[in-house]
Design goal:
With 622 residues, the protein is α+β, with helices and mostly antiparallel strands. The protein is built from 15 helices and 36 strands. Strands 18, 19, 20, 21, 22, 23, 29, 31, 33, 34, 35 and 36 form a twelve-stranded mixed sheet that branches. An eight-stranded antiparallel sheet has the order 12-11-17-8-9-16-13-14, with no helix packed on it.
């Protein structure tokens, strides 16, 4: 039967197109909060890192009641590095609201998330957001974007029913939308008052309720995991058949690493459902509900929970294969254990395995030694978020440079992943950016003039070429450029590519940096450290202006004499220090270097610390 009192849907879009802001106003206008009640912006970004960075990292559930129907809404990430969150959650819903920026149009992640939704057979509601942007007030930009989205539907093989999608024009920040394009100017001027009611009505009429078997044996597939300090592991998913009550004895049906299926019996200790953006305890979950089951700490995403071992297991959740891998190691620096918990290999392995359990887009492989492990993922930002999370847990460890995963075709030829990079930038910087991407084996596939003296460039470029390019791109465009990419497949190896042109400035002894020493060193390059910073032999303190590495003494002090000379005792002024954040360090890192991560500091160092055991001449590294 079809449950008419529930609608399960997700909000999908490219990063920064307004998903989380739209969900905020859906919750407010759904009657969740009183008129006088004060609410935060981006309520669904509950993770501290999400609020700091202004992006959604984890897919999260919420609900709102509209006209007697409960809408279970999933807010999904828009960044390509977190595409696995979209892939694993898309199967729990019955429809999707696709947000597209009225000025930028469909971008790489728009294509990725739409393709996943169409493959699941979901119906789509198109929401053209940010129609108040000044760029879209010129010409027929909004209609052009609608046509681009329709072309994308056709290109992705959507059915006739899916292509016949309704359209709403919205400004999610102000909490209104309309199906009538002629009303947009009136709403923008304030001559007409709007709300999100047209979108609510479309959701109720366009999307069907979940098809369920209320009298069957309890069946539920896990699409998400969470943790509670009070009840332990929380298993999130949609109930497909039957019902489950608190205290009931059920089974976890899973798969061992060797592919063998197994079952495990446990008792349900707690049940939760969603009310707004909060988890509310309940006595029972029935078919069609998206809810939470507690009672088993060994669950994995993709496991099946059931009332019997005789039920058919769901197939495991499949996501796109990782394209990058990064090595994680225990901290072996001279400062190990002084600023956090210097974990040993066993605890490092347990922490990485826990991450793989909660994130289906991440995989782990054994390293070359017993205290090193490879983590496989999709992008530098995904690795940076995990590293920052582990750092805030008080752990000390080291990571190496991300490396692209190569494959071999049937003929034994080496192939590498190639991505399609879409760039929006002021046309004044086109020449510099084109040269930058072509130097990294990029091929210009498309050039288009955009409103407001901007251009759209599309490059097909090896994934290796995108490593470390984001900071250089933002510098070249003075922070005004937008940059996104998607994996398009594997092509023959493009040849060697120099990752970083300049060498490193390296401390040749242990001590504390002095202003006197740094003032002479800064003539040779760019410094990363301030005076008074503790350093050790082999630690990177800056970037050399030449290709080779440079060993220096950053702790040298000025010799004191009893002879005074005019002007010799003046203050030393350093030109400037380049602050190396975690992401910037990952981009800068080369193959023979580590990032030492502690709760208090991010340090760069050479893998071989002793200066007499390593050469200062850098060969080309691909």
């Amino acid at each position: 039967m079809i449950r008419q009192d529930i609608r399960n849907l997700c909000i999908i879009a490219h990063v920064d197109h307004g998903k989380t802001t739209l969900v905020d106003h859906l919750l407010k206008q759904g009657g969740l909060f009183a008129a006088h009640e004060k609410t935060e912006d981006r309520m669904m970004d509950s993770n501290a890192l999400e609020r700091e960075r202004g992006i959604t990292i984890l897919a999260k559930n919420c609900s709102v009641n509209v006209k007697g129907v409960k809408l279970n809404i999933v807010d999904t990430p828009g960044h390509a590095d977190f595409g696995g969150e979209v892939e694993r959650i898309i199967g729990t819903v019955d429809g999707a609201v696709l947000l597209v920026d009225a000025a930028e149009g469909p971008l790489p992640q728009t294509r990725f998330v739409l393709e996943k939704a169409l493959k699941m057979g979901h119906k789509i509601i198109l929401c053209i957001n940010k129609v108040d942007r000044p760029e879209v007030q010129v010409g027929d930009r909004i209609q052009d974007v609608v046509n681009q989205v329709f072309d994308l539907f056709v290109e992705l093989g959507a059915s006739d029913e899916q292509c016949d999608f309704p359209i709403v024009y919205a400004v999610a920040r102000e909490g209104w939308c309309t199906q009538n394009f002629d009303d947009v100017p009136l709403l923008l001027k304030g001559e007409k008052k709007g709300s999100l009611e047209p979108l609510f009505d479309l959701v109720l009429n366009r999307f069907k309720g979940p098809t369920v078997d209320p009298d069957g044996v309890f069946t539920m597939q896990l699409s998400n995991l969470s943790w509670s300090n009070f009840v332990g592991q929380l298993s999130v998913g949609r109930v497909i058949a039957g019902k489950v009550r608190k205290g009931q004895e059920i089974f976890r049906l899973g798969v061992k690493p060797n592919g063998e299926k197994f079952s495990e019996k446990f008792n349900v200790t707690k049940l939760f459902t969603y009310s707004g953006n909060r988890e509310v305890e309940t006595e029972e979950l029935t078919a069609g509900d998206i809810g939470i089951v507690a009672g088993n700490d060994n669950v994995f995403i993709g496991d099946t929970l059931g009332g019997s071992t005789e039920i058919e297991m769901f197939s495991r959740i499949q996501v796109q294969e990782p394209t990058l891998r990064m090595i994680f190691s225990i901290n072996s620096s001279p400062l190990s254990g002084k600023e956090g918990e210097a974990i040993q290999s066993r605890k490092l392995r347990e922490r990485l395995e826990r991450e793989c359990r909660a994130n289906v887009a991440v995989q782990m492989e054994e390293g070359d030694s017993t205290d090193q492990y490879f983590l496989l993922g999709r992008g530098e930002l995904q690795f940076a978020i995990l590293i920052e999370t582990m750092r805030r847990e008080g752990l000390e460890f080291m990571v190496g440079r991300p490396v692209v995963r190569m494959i071999k075709n049937d003929a034994g030829e080496k192939q590498e992943p190639v991505e399609r990079a879409v760039l929006y930038l002021p046309d004044a910087f086109t020449g510099a950016v084109t040269e930058m991407f072509q130097n990294r084996k990029g091929v210009l596939a498309h050039y288009e003039n955009m409103p407001a003296n901007r251009v759209k460039l599309v490059f097909d470029i090896p994934s290796r070429g995108l490593l470390g390019i984001r900071s250089s791109y933002l510098t070249a465009t003075r922070g005004e450029g937008l940059f996104s990419s998607e994996l398009v497949g594997y092509e023959p190896y493009k040849g060697e590519m120099l990752h970083r042109k300049n060498g490193a400035i390296i401390a040749d002894r242990t001590g504390k940096t002095t202003e006197y020493a740094l003032s002479s060193i800064e003539e040779r390059g760019v410094l990363f450290l301030n005076p008074g910073t503790e350093v050790y032999e082999g630690m990177v303190i800056g970037e050399h202006s030449r290709e080779q590495d440079l060993n220096v003494d950053p702790s040298k002090e000025k010799k004191l004499t009893n002879v005074r000379a005019a002007g010799s005792d003046g203050l030393t002024q350093l030109a400037g220090i380049r602050q190396m954040s975690l992401e910037r360090s990952i981009e800068w890192l080369d193959d023979d270097e580590w990032i030492e991560v502690t709760p208090k500091n991010i340090r760069l160092r050479k893998k071989v610390l002793q200066s007499n055991l390593r050469s200062v001449t850098r060969s080309k590294k691909s």
